[in-house]
Design brief:
Elements lengths: L2 H13 L3 H7 L11 E4 L4 H4 L3 H11 L6 E7 L2 E6 L1 H15 L13 E5 L14 H16 L3 E5 L8 H12 L2 H7 L1 H17 L2 H14 L3 H25 L17 H9 L3 E4 L2 E4 L9 E4 L7 H16 L3 E5 L5 H13 L8 E4 L4 E3 L14 H19 L6 H19 L6 E3 L1 H4 L7 H18 L16 H23 L3 H20 L7 H25 L8
Parallel strand pairs: 4-5, 4-9, 9-10, 11-12
Antiparallel strand pairs: 1-3, 2-3, 6-7, 7-8
Helix pairs in contact: 1-2, 5-19, 5-21, 7-9, 7-10, 8-9, 10-11, 12-13, 15-16, 18-20, 18-21, 19-20, 19-21, 20-21
């Protein structure tokens, strides 16, 4: 039962306003003494040609009070609704008891497909901390939309084309060792890549050699192609370990090279529709009328660019998946690129360009400056995850040496801490990577939320089912601290919807933190299990509801929940 919607419906009937207009204005008072829901009448003054306070006073006489509402009053321009806390708690908790970890799930997206382009690592380059945000934001959005009934297609648009492969072939032929690369993976490829750039500073002819090797790949040279595919295999083998640690999976690894034979039809269509123009020998789509720089399609020498490949990818995805939305989880540095991409498709006459969304996010940098693959200044994501796991293991050894399955719990907590830290701030904010901050398990962190979950499970285990058949005394939820927990539980379905509409997993990160804080406060102020069987039964049902909701919330973020800590 959605209490907010029912109240909006009652106000709609009394005022004649549309429910969606009312929903947009509804508030939750920060002080519970002012009510549980509030409707401000300020914006109605122009419509009704009356003072907001007068409108509020007249409307409360017309509103038919829903059964769960104990009181309605008008204070100034606000109409305040007070719910019957016992009825409210019973409805919410019983709903969660019935649905378990499916609480908040919906079929809003049934029959609709969302394509999500995220992570998009570069072949033969390290999976570093800079890839963390796109990977965990994309994975969380994949889970959120799947939870809401959408068919999701996760695409890892691999950076598997370009002159860097010519550089790698040149470097490998000069300084490479196949056995070392097979054993060392991406790190060994990075070593020879960095060496290439250092050597090229004094031997610029190496750049010409690299371009020649890449041309050999494009022309299908057998040896060059074999090395290209080997570099790709080595990379995918290495990064699969990291994806496994993060719990991230993809439905497609179609990267740049996949679209080599799919660009020409798009270029031909642009030419046929009169959209291609020559500019200094290059071919562009003029976007002056949209206030954007021209979109470069072909260089002077006829070679293609990112935009050409992304256009081909967009048409392929629409044809293959017939998406309702196509999300690109890419840093805000590419804002202009995606504006141009979507605008070109729109100018080609395809309205589905409106269904393409750039889900941008802030950049990740190190405390001492920007990362550089060419200079070898990177923080490997695998090292970050392993350090987090090791730190967790040392804490467990110190505080709970007898714990079973320490390896699993250490992984769940350590990896969860890294993911949570990346998703806690709003996605558009830049993230300065700092080991001490990321690996700090105190405060508003994943371990804090995970520990609340294990606390709930421990309480339920202690109860040993003795209260399952006992009639709950719902009056315990008239207490402010208990009602605060229930109120937060009731917000979860709407919160997931908001996170999906804003493409913002941080809303869920903050939600599970605040739910854990509310429950922990109640836990410290009141006994969950006491001599009153009926009140204990009610509190334990709330405890189970909290545990299941936290578990679902963390899962939506891509974080596991240990049963013991």
């Amino acid at each position: 039962m959605n209490y907010r919607n029912i109240i909006c419906e009652a106000i709609s009937k009394a005022s004649g306003l549309a429910e969606n207009e009312i929903e947009a204005l509804m508030e939750t008072p920060p002080d519970k003494s002012l009510g549980d829901f509030a409707f401000p009448c300020f914006k109605l003054a122009k419509t009704f040609r009356k003072a907001p306070a007068m409108i509020a006073g007249e409307l409360i006489d017309k509103i038919e009070k829903p059964g769960f509402v104990s009181q309605i009053n008008a204070v100034g321009a606000y109409i305040n609704f007070f719910v019957d806390r016992s009825v409210f708690a019973k409805d919410i908790i019983e709903k969660i008891m019935e649905e378990g970890t499916d609480y908040g799930r919906s079929d809003r997206g049934r029959g609709k497909t969302i394509v999500l382009d995220y992570s998009s690592i570069n072949i033969a380059k390290p999976f570093h901390i800079g890839h963390l945000l796109t990977t965990v934001i994309g994975n969380s959005l994949y889970r959120i939309f799947s939870f809401l009934g959408y068919t999701c297609v996760g695409v890892n648009h691999l950076g598997d084309w370009g002159t860097q492969f010519g550089k790698l072939i040149s470097a490998y032929k000069r300084w490479g060792n196949r056995e070392l690369i097979e054993e060392g993976g991406i790190k060994e490829l990075l070593n020879i890549y960095v060496r290439f750039h250092k050597e090229a500073e004094t031997h610029p002819e190496l750049e010409d050699e690299a371009r020649a090797y890449f041309k050999a790949i494009e022309d299908g040279d057998e040896e060059a192609l074999a090395l290209f595919h080997w570099f790709k295999d080595v990379t995918l083998k290495d990064i699969s370990k990291i994806y496994d640690l993060l719990g991230v999976k993809f439905d497609s690894y179609a990267g740049e090279s996949f679209y080599n034979d799919k660009m020409q039809p798009v270029i031909d269509e642009l030419r046929e529709k009169g959209l291609l123009e020559e500019s200094d020998g290059a071919m562009v789509v003029n976007l002056d009328d949209e206030g954007l720089p021209p979109c470069l399609i072909l260089k002077r020498d006829g070679t293609t660019l990112y935009a050409t490949r992304d256009l081909a990818a967009a048409f392929y995805r629409k044809k293959t998946y017939d998406f309702d939305k196509c999300l690109y989880v890419v840093a805000y540095q590419q804002n202009l690129h995606f504006k141009q991409l979507f605008t070109v498709i729109k100018k080609m006459g395809y309205d589905w360009a409106d269904d393409m969304v750039h889900v941008n996010f802030g950049m990740v940098s190190m405390a001492d400056g920007a990362m550089s693959t060419r200079e070898g200044r990177v923080v490997f994501l695998e090292e970050v995850l392993q350090k987090a796991i090791e730190k967790t293991r040392s804490i467990i050894e110190e505080k709970n040496p007898g714990m079973e399955d320490k390896d699993t719990v250490s992984r769940q907590i350590g990896v969860g801490a890294v993911i949570f830290s990346a998703l806690y701030a709003g996605r558009i904010k830049d993230m300065v990577f700092d080991y001490d901050r990321v690996l700090n398990f105190d405060g508003e962190t994943a371990p804090y939320v995970q520990y609340c979950h294990t606390r709930c499970r421990s309480l339920l285990q202690r109860a040993e089912g003795r209260y399952d058949a006992v009639a709950p005394d719902w009056s315990v939820f008239t207490e402010d601290e208990a009602f605060d927990v229930v109120s937060r539980l009731s917000d979860f379905p709407e919160l997931i919807e908001k996170a999906s509409l804003r493409y913002e997993p941080s809303l869920i990160t903050h939600y599970v933190t605040e739910l854990a804080q509310a429950f922990n406060k109640y836990y410290y102020d009141f006994r969950i299990i006491d001599d009153d069987m009926n009140k204990t039964a009610a509190r334990l049902k709330m405890t189970l509801a909290v545990a299941d909701t936290i578990k679902t919330g963390l899962w939506l973020l891509g974080i596991e929940t240990p049963t013991k800590m």
